[in-house]
Amino acid sequence: MGSPDLSLTDWLVLALLCEQPRHGFAVARELSADSELGAIWTVRRPLVYRSLDHLLDEDLAETRAVEPGVHGPHRTVMAPTRAGRTRVARWLDEPVSHPREVRTTLLAKLALRSRRGDELSSLARAQLATFGDVRGGVEQRHRTSDGIDRLTMQWRVSANRAIAAFLQSVIDDERGSTVP
Fold first, then answer.
1. H/E element holding 136?
2. Which residue in 67, 65, 61 sits closest to 15, CA to CA?
3. pLDDT-based confidence at 2, cuts 50/70/90?
4. Domain end position, chosen among 65, 93, 121
């Protein structure tokens, strides 16, 4: 096993296998455009199968069973290895490193955590802390910029404020749902 560099698709496929062993068609259905997770990150069936092959090659997933197909070929049921489960658990706790990853990776992590019944506020708090310095730097640069750079920085300030507001609302929603 190497040191796998996993794509967002790989992480989502592996996380779905951690929820329950499944065959590729079932994983693809979970990531189709009209599914909850697919609204965050849509993955076409051929890419799901490519991801499953990659996860097998990296010893993060394994074959569990082969089932006869109803109207087609046999279906291979996949499950995560112990290493795969460990990696997913760690990944779901890690904040993203750049604001541009919030719409995809962070939202996917929050959705997967919700499906698992995990709290969301711990990741939201960690993400707020991670972006604290970024927000301060962007706002400082905005104050000292001009021309097109100022316009760009104005966008980044607004986007970072929106991200912070979103994360705070995740924390507040969870806090509100636990108050008796």
1. helix 121-144
2. 61
3. very low
4. 93
